[in-house]
Write the structure tokens for this entry.
Amino acid sequence: MMDRVVFSSTKNEYLKGVFQNPQDIPETYEPVDCDFSDELEFAVIRQLPVEVKYWNVKNELHAIRGRIIDIYAENKAEYIKMSNQTLVRLDRIASVHILNPN
């Protein structure tokens, strides 16, 4: 039996993003808490399958499944890169859910 994989800050498979309502998202990048970035890095290092829900540029909620393969900074903003090459700005992430790795 495999041990359950959880985020250290929430003690479960679910991590809430910075903004839950699209009207709260600023036009320019709003830096995220270091703990949030650390949790995303945990998913990268462990190569965890995740579902990321995020607000697109039209403030519509989208979901994508895969692995986070990179976290990087560009033009004074931070992004994740998913295994299908989708880029998501960190402050536009609504949630990250660790999927069952089996």
